[in-house]
Amino acid sequence: MFILLSVAIAPGLALFSFFYLRNQMATEPRKTLLQSFIYGAILTFPIMFLQYVFKEEQVFQHIIVQDVFFTGVIEEFFKWIFLILVIYHHVEFDDPYDGVLYGAAVSLGFATVENVIYLMSYGMDTAFLRAILPVSSHALFGVVMGYYLGKAKFQSSQASLRYRALALFAPMTLHILYNAIFISQNHWVYYMVPFMLFLWWFSLRKVKQAHKALVQLLIQKAN
């Protein structure tokens, strides 16, 4: 059991450490980040409950609507609404890169619990595949969400609304595309590999842009 839990948790911690250590200009309070991770983990249970109820009640008749659109929409919406209501106005959300960290923390909290549940149910045979696909994709969706929230935080009211909307719809769209590829039965790996490469490129580009915005903000404060 200990080995299984370690294998399930390790990818999330490794990915979060990667994004945390890229922030060399400021140190975000670890307590707040840990709380965000924990809240993301807690979000897993109402999300999975709703998914279970909707599936059992056959609210959506077509598998594409249930497993592609509904899953992508509800998971990203819950993460987004938590970040908006709890983190966005937090006093410690004080630079553009914070959005990346909080978005990644919440998403990886969710992904880690989901990974633990899945590996406990089906064993460790797919642990490596889940580390490079579901866990990493959730992290990258969170990075994209957090990047746009970081942009929104330091914009005028009209621009802020636009970026907050992008913080929801950009990762939601990426998640729906990911789900659509994953459930395709024929040669899905040929579509998933370029998609994941794009997702990493796009997300790391946002990380770089957020870091650049942080440097500019620190220069302005120094002057």
Structure description:
With 223 residues, the chain is mostly helical. The protein has one domain. 84% of the residues lie in helices and 0% in strands. It contains seven helices and no strands. Helix 1 runs parallel beside helix 5 (127-153). The N and C termini lie far apart (54 Å).
Spell out the key features of this protein:
7 helices, 223 residues, mainly alpha, single chain
Note the main sheet.
Answer: none
Radius of gyration: 17 Å
Number of E-type strands: 0
| 3D shape | globular
- Spans with pLDDT under 50 lasting ≥5 residues? none
Q: How many structural domains does the protein architecture include?
A: 1
Q: Output mean pLDDT.
A: 87
User: What is the subunit arrangement here?
Assistant: single chain
- SS content category: mainly alpha
- Total helical elements: 7
Q: Whole-Å distance between the termini?
A: 54 Å
Helix content: over 70%
Q: Strand fraction band?
A: under 5%
Which sequence of SSEs, written as H and E, runs from N to C? HHHHHHH
